[in-house]
Amino acid sequence: MYIVHSTFSVPTEKADEVISIYHNRSGLVDAAKGFIRFLLLQNEKKNGELTVHMEWETKDDFLTWVQSEDYRRIHELEKKYPDQELASIIPSIQKFKVVAE
């Protein structure tokens, strides 16, 4: 299994707005080969810190996804978000290979 975390911080007063966006996400990734699960995590001490947690069967499945047209389409939409403060946020990405369960 392969896990990817994309962590970013938003102003605390905008956290609920961003969470709402993820509640209404397109779901395009859900149909990608090897995709297992999506979670949005909120840091319980820093409400403005959010992490997108994605689980994949393999690293290759994830890499295929990030090279796909659906991936590009989703990320182009993010750049066009009306709130430019949110649209300009650059996440910190961490990638993990699961070595034990």
UniProtKB/TrEMBL annotation:
Keyword terms, alphabetized: Monooxygenase, Oxidoreductase
PROSITE patterns for the chain: ABM
Presence of keyword Oxidoreductase: yes
GO molecular function: monooxygenase activity
Pfam families recorded: ABM (PF03992)
Signal sequence coordinates: none
Membrane-spanning residues: none
InterPro entries tied to this protein: ABM_dom, Dimeric_a/b-barrel, Heme-degrading_MO
Segments forming domain ABM: 2-90
SUPFAM superfamilies: Dimeric alpha+beta barrel
Coiled-coil region: none
PANTHER family registered for this protein in UniProt: SIGNAL TRANSDUCTION PROTEIN TRAP
Protein name: Heme-degrading monooxygenase HmoA
Organism: Priestia iocasae
Top-level taxonomy: Bacteria, Bacillati, Bacillota, Bacilli, Bacillales
